[in-house]
Each structure stands twice: as structure tokens, then as C-alpha cells.
TrEMBL record:
<dbReference type="InterPro" id="IPR000160">
    <property type="entry name" value="GGDEF_dom"/>
</dbReference>
<dbReference type="Pfam" id="PF13185">
    <property type="entry name" value="GAF_2"/>
</dbReference>
<feature type="domain" description="GGDEF">
    <location>
        <begin position="197"/>
        <end position="327"/>
    </location>
</feature>
<dbReference type="Pfam" id="PF00563">
    <property type="entry name" value="EAL"/>
</dbReference>
<dbReference type="InterPro" id="IPR029787">
    <property type="entry name" value="Nucleotide_cyclase"/>
</dbReference>
<dbReference type="Pfam" id="PF00990">
    <property type="entry name" value="GGDEF"/>
</dbReference>
<dbReference type="InterPro" id="IPR029016">
    <property type="entry name" value="GAF-like_dom_sf"/>
</dbReference>
<feature type="domain" description="EAL">
    <location>
        <begin position="336"/>
        <end position="591"/>
    </location>
</feature>
<dbReference type="GO" id="GO:0071111">
    <property type="term" value="F:cyclic-guanylate-specific phosphodiesterase activity"/>
</dbReference>
<dbReference type="InterPro" id="IPR003018">
    <property type="entry name" value="GAF"/>
</dbReference>
<protein>
    <submittedName>
        <fullName>Diguanylate cyclase</fullName>
    </submittedName>
</protein>
<dbReference type="InterPro" id="IPR050706">
    <property type="entry name" value="Cyclic-di-GMP_PDE-like"/>
</dbReference>
<dbReference type="InterPro" id="IPR035919">
    <property type="entry name" value="EAL_sf"/>
</dbReference>
<dbReference type="InterPro" id="IPR001633">
    <property type="entry name" value="EAL_dom"/>
</dbReference>
<dbReference type="InterPro" id="IPR043128">
    <property type="entry name" value="Rev_trsase/Diguanyl_cyclase"/>
</dbReference>
Length: 604
């Protein structure tokens, strides 16, 4: 009978049944075999406190009363057995000193004696296994055999459970910071939602982690992440701060504190400001935080998305600070974040492509060059222009990745056209402020062109004043000079619509200015616009700049510009931006001595 009982329990352990269910089954089976007893199984935590684990016949009131009991000498039978790591038999609960503080709990339930045996595995006490007798007595030989078997089975089951818990803990712990990881975060946030308590969510990104990695090496970056993780863990407590991956962290704020997320976020930012030593380098951590308070009726996905919206907004206009999601401005947050996600997904999934708009000689219609314009194919197959996700390019990292992908496409196309013997002049590549951040723009572009076998003099770098207004102008000027030294021309786009444009003609090394379409559109009917265009052409000639007029849509505009001495232009009059194959077709036609002519777009 005992062998069959042991095999049954071992089979349940081997199958991975829930430990509490296994032990309750064990208790019921033993109580059926041995009359006049009730069994209790307690577990011991790291704080040396006992907790009710199993015992279906134990009254809930009694289990609750002893739950959390600190072990020690003379603390009942179980507390003493766990403390001594050896069995303790009390044959009279009513008179034994070990039970003086607890007999008022046991005697009303009919318990007259208690024999407790510690459950031990690898010299560590995991809990206790106790027989409560309804008579003042000790165990029989058969009962001793049963207890020896049960304690062994309990040790196997509890040890297996501990190892399983440890495996789950390791699987849900970030190895670098020791914080719970994304998997644990997903579990905890689901529990918060189910609890119906007040809670809020903060999402945090470290600032300039890439700069730290590039400057001091990835070990310094890892040290920085680990330092931030330790500070968050100390500040927020268990299962409140999480590392989601990379430089991303999350903090769950509970209770009344979530009413004022800003106060809690400010406390976090203040704690992060202290310098930390990373591979011998002193680094001052900085972070940007977005947050949202959970609102009844919103799903977890909506709350996380709201916090994401706020973080994106903070990274764009309040770096190093906190922004809380506001439902009054939610549509604006969502629109901007949607653009960010749209472009990020497109880059990741390879759905970004290039269309080309010809730049032509206004007198002959001959193609002098092409401007590369970004296009994104939605998952539904729709091709959209950059204007639909322009706000997303204000994110420096995203804009820089967009430039890298566009450059690789341009280099591939340019090499193919060269192999076909097609003259395409130069291709204009639009760059953003994000491309200048690492100080390696020229080297990055030259590297891609060399890999593709394309000379640098086939590229025009197009930039706007926003790249250097309010930024480290000297650094930008130096990088522009390196681009020109490498053989590329540099064009100032949208000229005339920014700030201090004439000043920049003197201070910024340029080759080309592109007159904004606004002036081209107005110059026929607005004398002020025509005077400005004429003045720009005169200044450019004296400064030896080339000029390209943008947005030419009518023959009248083309003739007017030609009359003022403008040689180059682009616009719908000549061609819309066309895909790569159509661009190749235009170049083939030109190679066959068929110049591009106005209204060509209708033939495409």
C-alpha cells in the first residue's frame, strides 16, 4: 500500500502537476490510511517565516493564524523543528511550553499532540510536515514509516518547484541590470489591470546611449545601463521597475502616487542625474520619460500606447524631461506617433523606396540631374510620399536610418545606370540633422558609394537651414566642407523660406541654392516675389552658385525664369517624381537623343 501511494505521488510530481494540489492529495491519502490525525505542510521563506502550503483538513482560521510565523526555539512544534532542522514531538499541547502561545488556537480544534518533521533538501530547510493527533500520544512505527516517506516526497516536490521558480525568475530577469525583463513586465501589468487598483505607467529611454557606446565603447554603455537599473531598483522596489530592452525601461506606479505621475517621474530623473563611473569614465546619465494613468474602460494595450505617445512627444520636444499623456491632446499624440510607427515599420520591413524627379535645363529640356525622393509602400500596397510621415523624420535616429537606406538605393541605381551607359548627371540626396550627429556623415556616404563603385561626384547633398539653426554650426560647417572635399556638391534646399538665408550664403560652404516653390508660384502675379527671385539669381551668379528653381508647373513660369537667366529647374511641367524603372526609361530616351519635354508626365 505504501509503495503504491509513493508511486502515485511521484507520478504527479513527474507530470508537473501544481505543487499545492500534489501535497493536498498526499495529505488526504495519508489521512485515509491513518485515523485520528490531521496533516499540515508548511513552507519556509527566505525571511525564515512559515506559510501554510497544504493541509485540506486544517481549518482556514488556524492556517491564517500561524501564517507568517517566524521560526525559533520554542515556537510550537513546527517553528522549533524548522529552527533546529530536526523532528520535534509534543505529546501534550495543553502543557508543553513550546505551545503556551499557541494552544488557544489548537485545543478548540481538538488537537492534543503534534509531531513536526523538517523537510530538508541539500541541507536547506524548505518547510515542515506535521501530524496533529486528537489524543495525547506519539507516533506508531507505521506512522514513522509514513512520515519518512512523506517528508521525502515533499522534499522532492518542493525542490522541483523551487527549481522551476528559479528557472522562471532567470527567464524573466534582465541579466545586465537584474531588473525584471519585458516578459515579467507583461505578466505584472496584466495583474495590475485585473486588480482594479489605481496605477500608472512610465516609459523611459536613456538619452545618448549610442553616443556613450561610440565614444567610450559598449562596455561603458553596459555599465551605464546597469547603473541606471540599480538606481531604479532601489528607488521603485520589487516588480515595479523593468528593463524592456536596449535603453528602454518601464516603471509601474501604484496607489495614490499614480495620481501625480509628474512628481514620481521628476524623482526618477533627479536620482539618475548623479554621475556614475563606467569603465573608468565619469558619465552623467539622462533620460526622457512619457507616462499615462490607467483609466477605467481602457485596455492594457491602450494604456501602453498612451504612454508610448507621451514618450515619443517628450523625445521630440522635451528631451531629458517628462511628458504625461493628455486625453485632450491625444489625437495629436496619436497622429505624430502613428507617423513614427509607420516609418519605423517601413524601414524595418524594407518597404522604403526612392522615386526620382528630373532636374532639367530650362532651355533645352535636357536632364541635368535627379533628386531622390523617399516613398513608402504601406502594407496595403499604397505608395505614399514623405509628406505623410514628415513629422517622424524629426526623430534624429529614425531620420538617419532613413538616409542610410535611401543612400544604398541611390548607389545601386547609379551603378546600374553607369553600367548601362546612361548619363544621369548627379543625384540629390536629402539629409537631416540626425545625419550630422555622429560627425561621420562624409565617411558614411563615401563608404556606401565606394562599396557600390559609384564616384562621389555623382552625388549632391541637399540640406535645409534647420540642420544648423540653433545647433553646433561649426561642427556642421566642418562636415559640409568634408563632403565637398570628398567630391560631392552641396545644395541649400527651400532657399528663401528659412531664417538668415543670406547670412548662410556667406558662412556655409555651398555649391547650389534651390529657390523654393513658393517664390516660383507667386512670381508671375506678385512683383515682390519676382524681385526676390531676380535678386537671388543675381547674387548667386556673383557668388558662383548654381541655381535650381523648384515647383515649375507652367510654361509661363519656365519662360519667366529663363528670361531672368535661370538655367536649371524641376517641377511637374517636366515630370513628376517617377519610380526607378520609369527614371531609367527617361534616361534611355535621352540617350536616344529624345530630350525631355514639357508635359512629359502624361506619357508615363
Amino acid at each position: 500500500m505504501l509503495t503504491a501511494f509513493q508511486n502515485m505521488i511521484l507520478e504527479k510530481i513527474a507530470k508537473g502537476d501544481v505543487l499545492v494540489d500534489i501535497l493536498n492529495c498526499l495529505c488526504r491519502a495519508v489521512e485515509d490510511m491513518v485515523p485520528d490525525i490531521v496533516i499540515s505542510v508548511l513552507s519556509l521563506d527566505d525571511e525564515l517565516c512559515l506559510h501554510h502550503l497544504a493541509g485540506p483538513s486544517i481549518a482556514p482560521s488556524y492556517a491564517d493564524a500561524i501564517d507568517g510565523l517566524k521560526i525559533g526555539e520554542g515556537v510550537g512544534s513546527c517553528g522549533t523543528a524548522a529552527f533546529r532542522a530536526s523532528p520535534v514531538l509534543v505529546e501534550s499541547i495543553a502543557t508543553h511550553p513550546f505551545w503556551s502561545a499557541f494552544k488557544h488556537l489548537a485545543l478548540p480544534l481538538g488537537f492534543r499532540a503534534c509531531w513536526s518533521t523538517p523537510i530538508i533538501s541539500d541541507d536547506k530547510v524548505l518547510g515542515t510536515f506535521a501530524f496533529y493527533f486528537f489524543r495525547e500520544r506519539g507516533p506508531s512505527d507505521f506512522e514513522r514509516q509514513i512520515v519518512a516517506a512523506c517528508v521525502h516526497l515533499c522534499a522532492i516536490g518542493m525542490d522541483r518547484e523551487l527549481r522551476s521558480v528559479e528557472r522562471r525568475r532567470i527567464a524573466q530577469t534582465d541579466s545586465l541590470t537584474g531588473l525584471p525583463n519585458r516578459s515579467r513586465f507583461n505578466d505584472i501589468i496584466a495583474l495590475e489591470d485585473a486588480s482594479k487598483r489605481h496605477w500608472g505607467l512610465l516609459l523611459m529611454d536613456l538619452d545618448d546611449l549610442k553616443l556613450v557606446n561610440d565614444t567610450f565603447g559598449h562596455l561603458a554603455g553596459d555599465d551605464l545601463i546597469a547603473s541606471v537599473g540599480r538606481r531604479l531598483q532601489s528607488l521603485c522596489g520589487p516588480d515595479s521597475a523593468f528593463r524592456l530592452g536596449g535603453d528602454e525601461f518601464a516603471v509601474i506606479v501604484r496607489g495614490d502616487e499614480c495620481v501625480d505621475l509628474g512628481f514620481f517621474a521628476s524623482h526618477i530623473l533627479d536620482c539618475l542625474k548623479a554621475p556614475c563611473l563606467c569603465v573608468g569614465q565619469t558619465i552623467y546619465p539622462s533620460a526622457t520619460i512619457g507616462g499615462a494613468v490607467a483609466v477605467v474602460g481602457e485596455s492594457i494595450a491602450e494604456i501602453r500606447q498612451n504612454a508610448d505617445f507621451a514618450l515619443y512627444e517628450a523625445k521630440d520636444r522635451a528631451r531629458g524631461k517628462f511628458i504625461e499623456y493628455s486625453r485632450n491632446s491625444g489625437s495629436r499624440f496619436a497622429r505624430r506617433f502613428g507617423a513614427f510607427q509607420q516609418l519605423a515599420d517601413g524601414l524595418r520591413e524594407g518597404r522604403v523606396d526612392v522615386h526620382y524627379q528630373p532636374i532639367v535645363d530650362l532651355r533645352t529640356g535636357h536632364i541635368l540631374g535627379l533628386e531622390a525622393l523617399c516613398r513608402l509602400t504601406n502594407r496595403n500596397g499604397e505608395v505614399i510620399s514623405a509628406s505623410h510621415f514628415h513629422e517622424a523624420t524629426r526623430d534624429a535616429n529614425l531620420a538617419a536610418e532613413l538616409t542610410r537606406q535611401i543612400l544604398r538605393i541611390i548607389a545601386t541605381d547609379a551603378r546600374r545606370w553607369m553600367d548601362l551607359g546612361l548619363d544621369f548627371g548627379r543625384v540629390g540626396l536629402n539629409v537631416s540633422a540626425g545625419d550630422f550627429l555622429d560627425g561621420q556623415l562624409s565617411e558614411n556616404i563615401v563608404g556606401v558609394l565606394e562599396t557600390a563603385g559609384v564616384p562621389t561626384n555623382k552625388i549632391v547633398i541637399e540640406l535645409t537651414e534647420s540642420i544648423y539653426i540653433g545647433r553646433h554650426e561649426q561642427s556642421v560647417v566642418g562636415q559640409i566642407a568634408k563632403l565637398r572635399k570628398a567630391g560631392m556638391e552641396v545644395a541649400l534646399d527651400d532657399f528663401g523660406t528659412g531664417f538668415a538665408s543670406l547670412t548662410h550664403l556667406v558662412t556655409i560652404p555651398l555649391d547650389i541654392i534651390k529657390i523654393d516653390r513658393l517664390f516660383v508660384e507667386r512670381m508671375i502675379v506678385d512683383r515682390s516675389a519676382s524681385v526676390i527671385v531676380e535678386a537671388l539669381l543675381s547674387i548667386s551668379e556673383k557668388l558662383n552658385f548654381k541655381v535650381i528653381a523648384e515647383g515649375i508647373e507652367t510654361r509661363e513660369q519656365c519662360d519667366f525664369l529663363s528670361g531672368l537667366g535661370c538655367v536649371r529647374g524641376q517641377g511637374f511641367l517636366f515630370s513628376k517624381a517617377v519610380d526607378r524603372e520609369q527614371a531609367t526609361l527617361l534616361l534611355r530616351r535621352q540617350a536616344e537623343k529624345t530630350a525631355i519635354v514639357p508635359m512629359l508626365r502624361f506619357a508615363l
